[in-house]
Design a protein that fits this description.
22 helices; DNA ligase i, domain 1; 665 residues; DNA damage; 4 domains; globular; alpha+beta; 18% strand; eight-stranded mixed sheet; binds adenosine-5'-triphosphate
Length: 665
């Protein structure tokens, strides 16, 4: 595949576009004096075009133009339109979900599309596409009164209301709301509504691409007619600045409700780090307690000597790599929030963490903070560290402190914010000094990550052995002074993980997404018995197949997985999956992430992982993969990236070459 040239986006977006006339067929100009609002049809039209386009750049262009039209003509609708595009109703950490089951939708489709419920069910079982059934049959229905066109805002607000509904009668109220929407919807709107409600709306653009399109739209709006006379390099530069700054802001303030109004009121210049507008408002758009920061991540490394080479004279520290669950703990105005690695709210899961925290800092001097830590299960008798699997046995939601049977200890390793002040730009050495000054360890409940500041290979080796003996996975090695700021969402080369496994020559586990499945045979008939797994390539926004797997599963586990995955079954291979179709019984809309251990990686004629990164025309495959566990703390797009697969392959080849040298010596 040809890699896109560095100015390809600019080339596409430089084509003339008039937000008034180009979308006129689905979004006519308002009557004089009336307010311009975005019809749902305009959003649907863009989605349909995107679904039918195979080029990612072309998809981004379509979305950019829709967003540009919205920013220009009806900015008050931008939040609703953007939420509809990414099919969410609120920021991720708020845990707001539509939660509409197929049973309810079957009922609504039957009532609104003139079919019996049994007939809808039968058709659904045959085709697996409820949205298509609804659209086709709704079209056949004669309507006496022409419904009022749906607006994007109405659809979004109805979705949000449904997601927030609770208490008595909730099913009836949800049914009524959906019926109203489906009755007013026309043509492809019916299809998109049902897909959105089923959470199967993936149109071929992941959230990072949608955010990039939003950044581009703000840049184009600011540049206006100048776009046409700019060089492609200058235009691309402006597009890149807007997209990357917007992404960075979202890593720190992951809330459309906060970020979009700010960018709308200050415009593109808010996204230009060298502008005075940016300087004036930077603090308003940086991290704050209550909103999860995308955590900094680490790169695997295969040995202490590699660390020394990589850090090249920079001062560094080694910390125990605890085997628990990442917890970003926020405090402000007496309130504590706990967020997972995946930015989900885990405050209810850890009432014991919430209750212990106030006793480890001085409330008189500390008004707010954000710390990064690992929560680890400890033995109630001895206080010894327990493996991650033990922590997994704790309940997940609404746990009462009195019911906690598996105690945990918090191991704090970083502080990102204190008393109204973000600390991201300080070095780790400085942040650690603040952490130590503010908190007081409480045995078995709150501790600092054990560390060693030494560049002596023997000392580090001893420290690594010690960490393993204490029940840790190995070490995290981090720069202390230079290149030692905290960069949200970044997989940093200045944070290295050194696990015992890598040193034994076993590759790191991979976190992969099941994208297809095969039915079992013999006693496993009727149950899924094998899966096609994929990694994710953000560059091309596609899931790339990496291996088939059928080992590592107990029979009961397969039954459980079959049940869990059933709602994700889909008859056709999604367009954003790069995989051979042969032999796959059922495709799965991406929903789960599995940790997989493999013997090694090899260049493959049938799989597509990291295609173009190591071999121009072939992908990489895993050999002898085994299922380890389901990673509930990761979303599909957080799975192992194609780039990481390529790096693993390269470092494996390097290790083999080194062995060859030793043998031949
Ligand atoms: P990744 O987070 O890199 O995608 P992962 O979730 O599989 O991968 P690991 O590869 O095991 O995690 O390593 C990183 C994780 O190690 C961190 O996200 C954090 O939860 C944990 N961790 C344990 N101890 C530390 C420490 N001292 N410093 C930073 N992270 C630590």
């Amino acid at each position: 595949m040809e890699p896109p040239s560095v100015t390809s986006m600019a080339k596409l977006l430089q084509e003339p576009f008039d937000p008034m006339s180009c979308v006129a067929n689905v979004w006519p100009a308002p009557t004089p004096g009336a307010q311009d609002t975005v019809p749902y049809a305009a959003v649907v039209d863009a989605m349909v075009d995107i679904s039918a386009t195979s080029s990612r750049l072309e998809c981004v262009k379509i979305l950019t133009r829709l967003l540009l039209a919205v920013i220009t003509r009806a900015p008050a609708d931008l939040i609703a339109v953007f939420y509809l595009v990414i099919n969410k109703q609120a920021p991720q950490h708020e845990g707001v979900e539509l939660g509409i089951g197929d049973a309810l939708l079957l009922k609504v489709v039957s009532e609104c599309c003139g079919m019996t419920e049994a007939r809808v069910k039968e058709a659904y079982q045959q085709t697996g596409d409820l949205a298509e059934i609804a659209q086709n049959n709704k079209q056949k229905q004669a309507t006496l009164v022409q419904p009022k066109p749906l607006s994007a805002k109405t659809v979004f607000q109805s979705f949000k209301q449904m997601a927030l509904m609770s208490g008595k009668d909730v099913m009836r109220r949800r049914t009524d709301t959906i019926k109203k929407l489906v009755r007013d919807a026309q043509g492809a709107e019916v299809n998109l509504l049902i897909r959105a409600l089923q959470q199967k709306m993936r149109i071929g653009l992941a959230e990072p691409s949608a955010l990039a399109a939003l950044g581009y739209a703000f840049a184009l709006q600011f540049l206006g007619a100048r776009c046409a006379v700019m060089t492609l390099d200058d235009l691309q530069n402006a597009l890149n600045i807007a997209a990357s700054t917007l992404a960075r802001i979202f890593y720190e303030v992951p809330s459309i409700d906060i970020v979009l109004p700010a960018v709308l009121s200050h415009g593109f210049l808010l996204l230009v780090p060298r502008s005075s507008v940016f300087a004036r408002h930077q603090r308003d758009l940086s991290i704050r307690p209550g909103l999860p920061v995308k955590p900094q991540l680490a790169h695997p490394t295969s040995g202490i000597s590699v660390v020394l080479d990589r850090f090249n004279e920079r001062k560094f520290t080694s910390e125990y790599k605890y085997d628990g669950e990442r917890a970003q703990i926020h405090y402000e105005n007496g309130k504590i929030h706990v967020f997972s690695r995946n930015s989900e709210t885990h405050t209810d899961k850890y009432p014991d963490v919430v209750s212990v925290l106030p006793s480890v800092f001085e409330k008189a001097t500390v008004t707010s903070f954000i710390i990064d830590s690992e929560v680890v299960a400890v033995s109630p008798e001895t206080g010894a560290l327990q493996a991650f699997q033990v922590l997994q046995h704790r309940g997940r939601k609404n746990i009462a402190e009195k019911d906690v049977t598996i105690p945990v200890c918090i191991f704090a390793f970083d502080i990102l914010y204190l008393n109204g002040e973000p600390l991201l730009d300080r070095s780790l050495e400085q942040r650690r000094a603040v952490l130590y000054q503010i908190f007081t360890p409480l045995p078995g409940k709150f501790a600092f990550a054990t560390h060693l500041d030494s560049d002596n290979v023997e000392d580090i080796q001893k420290f690594l052995d010690q960490s393993i003996a204490a029940g840790c996975e190995g070490l995290m090695i981090k720069t202390l002074e230079e290149e030692a700021t905290y960069t949200p969402a970044k997989r940093s080369h200045f944070w290295l993980k050194l696990k015992k496994d890598y040193m034994d020559g076993v590759t790191d586990t991979l976190d992969l997404v099941p994208i297809g499945a095969f039915y079992g045979k013999g006693k496993r008939a009727g149950v899924l018995g094998g899966f096609l797994l994929a990694c994710y390539d953000a560059e091309s926004d596609e899931y790339q197949s990496i291996c088939k797997i059928g080992t590592g599963f107990q029979d009961e586990a397969l039954e459980k997985l079959t049940g869990e995955l059933r709602p994700s079954f889909t008859a056709e291979k999604p367009r954003y999956y790069r995989a051979e179709t042969a032999g796959v019984d059922v495709w799965l809309i991406e929903s789960q992430v599995w940790e997989i251990k493999a013997a090694d990686l090899s260049i493959s004629p049938v799989h597509y992982a990291a295609i173009g990164l190591v071999d121009p025309a072939k992908g990489i495959a895993l050999r002898f993969p085994r299922y380890v566990r389901t990673r509930e703390d990761k979303k599909p797009c957080d799975c192992t990236a194609a780039q990481q697969v390529a790096e693993m392959y390269r470092s494996q080849s390097l290790a083999i070459q080194k062995e060859d040298v030793v043998v031949s010596e």
